[in-house]
Amino acid sequence: MTLRKLLPVVLSALLILATAPPDALSQGRGGRGAAAATPPGPPAPVPAAVAIPRPSDAELEAARAALSRFASTDAAARSLLQKYPGLIEVTPPRPNTAIRPSLSQGFMAKHQANLEVAKQGDANVLFMGDSITDFWRGSNPPYDGKAVFDKYFSQWTVANFGIAGDTTQGVLYRLQDGEGKGFTPKAIMLMIGTNNRLGNTAAEIAEGVGAVVLALQQDFPNARILLLGVFPTGAAANDPARATIAEINKIIAKLNDGTRVRYLDIGKGFLDADGNIPADVMSDGLHPTAKGYEIWAKAVIQPLSTLMGTPVPAVK
Q1: Is residue 313 part of a domain?
Q2: Are 185 and 123 spatial neighbours (Cβ–Cβ below 8 Å)?
Q3: Catalytic pick among 239, 257, 284, 305
Q4: 11/136 same-domain check
Q5: CATH code, domain with 247
Q6: Is 64 found in the same domain as 188?
Q7: Domain boundaries, position 276
Q8: Domain check: are 259 and 237 in the same one?
Q9: 3-state secondary structure of 225
Q10: Do residues 163 and 299 both lie within one domain?
Q11: Rounded CA separation 123/185 (Å)
């Protein structure tokens, strides 16, 4: 392999090092107030459409050899490396915690409750996610989605497996530990990833979402998935989180296959004309209020009904 071909590999590795969030390999950081987590399992499989390019061992060695040759022939580089050993290194993309199944111990009680729902075997729709999904059953303002849920979705038997604070790796753990067994949903609505922003890059989160989609397809081979883009967060249009979420959604949109997975980004529905999130839609810039859940329900009732093969209900 020539130095010219290896240079993008070297630069990519260095860029990943420079932009990596701190403490990204620590466990239990994906959810707000998350406690210690179960030891992470082996990396889950990831669909090729969202996989982060990773060089082989041979390519890494070739890149290191090329970098060494460059340093040996460039006096300025050689001087810098003598003064600051390790300043320039070829390092592969770090392990992605978003695809290693692991659940916060603080979420175990809700996980056990979900297992009991799964064992009942009668759910024909699955809602999977974090607090934003979890609060569909909330009845206390401002996070009160239950009345809206009952109005739009009562014609189905819905298993709500949202757990507040959860992450892609948490969902992977839960599916492997029994939430992916015991029932046969016809449709699944998935929205996950916002809590991973505390410890993962957009590309890593997209891999995590892809791993969850693949796991759901394996567990529920006859179900069709409505994959939602990660919702906007931060009340202001210029909140830095918006760019990260836009990057995540750009990648996971590639998971739409026209048959088993339908991708739908409804984020703009939560924004005003200036791109801000009104307080009566998301009081904290993250979790929908009853009005926010109404926006969500109106946006998904038609595609969910199509996936279920049932008429769109007449909602007053």
Answers
A1: no
A2: yes
A3: 284
A4: no
A5: 3.40.50.1110
A6: no
A7: 105-308
A8: yes
A9: strand
A10: yes
A11: 6
Predicted local distance difference test score (pLDDT) of residue 13? 39
**What is the count of structural domains for the chain?**
2
Whether 195 and 231 map to the same domain: the answer is: yes
CA distances (Å), origin 193, targets 130, 153, 167, 189, 219:
8, 24, 6, 14, 20
How high is the mean pLDDT of the chain? 89
pLDDT at 11 over 70: no
The answer on 77 and 189 residing in a single domain is no
Residues 85 and 129 in one domain: no
Amino acid at 241: A
Residue 241 lies in a domain: yes
43-89 per-position pLDDT tens digit = 999 999 999 999 999 999 999 999 889 888 888 888 888 899 888 88
Which amino acid, residue 203? A
User: What is the pLDDT, as a whole number, of residue 27?
Assistant: 35
Higher-confidence position of 85 and 35: 85
Torsions phi, psi for 157 (to 5 deg): -95, 100
Same domain assignment for residues 119 and 67: no
**Is 296's pLDDT higher than 50?**
yes
Is residue 174 included in any domain, yes or no?
yes
User: Active site residue: 102, 104, 131, 283, which one?
Assistant: 131
Does residue 284 carry a catalytic annotation?
Answer: yes
| pLDDT of 234 over the 60 cut | yes
111 catalytic? Reply is: no
Active-site residue, selected from the candidate residues 12, 111, 177, 287 = 287
Question: From the centroid of its chain, how far is CA 90?
Answer: 28
Q: How far is CA 62 from the centre of its chain?
A: 33
Closest CA to 6 of 76, 52, 51, 61: 61
Task: State pLDDT tens for residues 207-227.
Answer: 999 999 999 999 999 999 999
DSSP conformation letters of 46-107: --GGGPPP---HHHHHHHHHHHHHHHHH-HHHHHHHHHSTTSS---PPPP-GGGS---BGGG
